[in-house]
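stuck on this chain:
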Amino acid sequence: MMYQKLIEIINNKIGVHSISEERKTILQPLVDFVQQKVNDRHDININFICTHNSRRSHLSQVWAQVASAHFNIPNVHCYSGGTEETALFPKVAETLTEQGFKIFKIADTNNPVYAIKYSDNALPIIGFSKKYDNPFNPVSAFTAIMTCSQADGGCPFIAGAEKRIPVTFEDPKISDNTPEQSKVYAERSLQIATEMFYVFSKIS
């Protein structure tokens, strides 16, 4: 059972009907990849990649994992990585906490490691910044989802990826150090959540 506040966010703030036809076209290759893996009874490994692995790639990893659980799609394993290693931006953890997740810092370093939980009994999602080819991530049989145009342009080749799909989002970083920051991060998180829920809602 997911946490009550998270269930309320899913029920009241995530509306897959709001997704434009243009975005549905962008998301369709990911729908097709997941459906093919389900049809073949294979594990579904998805690595969300952004330049710094600090914001959009983590939000995508977390919400895709939650969406797969919500729609009871088994054997989905979501990861994230960057073209360089930095740190998970603290506002991302704060935003997810406000949206109903329970987050624990399990290593407090310059690049902290977080356990991100959506349910008391589900495995936590492990969040920390790393390069996309870090040993923590799968080395083959995965799809690489490029969540920012810089990573999409700067990484023409992702070793081990079966498929490489651009699904880019605007960087919430543009709001840092402004009064709009909390609003922008919340909106970006919910946009990503909505699109990941759309993807997994299409799987049969």
Observations:
- The two ends are 22 Å apart (CA to CA).
- The beta strands are 44-50, 76-82, 102-107, 113-117, 125-127, 142-146, 161-166.
- The chain has six helices and seven strands.
- The longest helix spans residues 181-201.
